[in-house]
User: What shape does this take?
Amino acid sequence: MRNFAWTIRKSSYILKDRWITVRADSCEMPSGQTIEPFYVLEYPAWVNVVALTADDDVILVRQYRHGLQETILGLPSGTVEPEDASPLAAAKRELREETGYASDSFMESGRLSANPATHTNLTYCYVATDVQPITVPRMDDTEPIELVVMPLQAVFEQAVSGKLPQSLHVGSLFLALVALDRLHLT
Amino acid sequence: MRNFAWTIRKSSYILKDRWITVRADSCEMPSGQTIEPFYVLEYPAWVNVVALTADDDVILVRQYRHGLQETILGLPSGTVEPEDASPLAAAKRELREETGYASDSFMESGRLSANPATHTNLTYCYVATDVQPITVPRMDDTEPIELVVMPLQAVFEQAVSGKLPQSLHVGSLFLALVALDRLHLT
Assistant: This one.
């Protein structure tokens, strides 16, 4: 395997705000050539959850997403906050806060990157089984959320037909179904 | 369905460079509350290709990705350039340039977003069958690429075990296998 890694010679922050951190790196390639600036987006770890009830329903959320300027279906998801003990704890908190559902059966199904060329972080993907409603979803005026409970087969069809466009969520659904031995390659 | 959409009241560009465009929006939510600034990342459409040979091998590339600072496996992929007649044309071009492979059998398997909250663009996912080597991959010093030809079953296992971490690629692999009727939910 050839060494393709760049060496960072210099680095500075261009933009730091609540939801975005842009870093500009001056990089040297193995060929000696310089790339500058190369912008990377620094984020904390993210989490998402494929949450299944005992009846094979999936707990989803419908939210406005301003990048695409569309209100779309997605998995319960969020950011690992400093007060979360672990990505798993963050996943349990996000599921509870966004949907009111909880479970004792969480399993990590894999880790994905929104874009390894630009994003520094990974998304920890979980599958939770036998989830049950235990509380009322948090009401957050800056992030209104609609709860959607949908049979797994229908969620699969939504993903295939582009109605679940977030790639981290489609990827997580795929990983969850493989982890549950529900998806088979022929 | 409740209306969650934000209205953009003001918009300006914070950063425009070769590989990044950051726009700052001042937005009004349905509740009347203002969010500002909300940063979005403007990109042109992206494409990727699950390219299968007649022998069920997948054509992959190994590249350094500076966000994660790792050299990783991925699908042939890229940006729809102004000179591309369509996303399909861009996908054919990227496959040929990055790997030297081509095919007459391309099918769109779906469209995904790297992150609908921040990214304005979609990624057009394609599956190409009966691909064959027809030329020498382009040598690009700023983006050295290693060609990897791998049986589909092994690629599936790589995706499941985190060795194909780009969510747009895992999502595209999932969509391709469903489109080819090779993946079944039980």
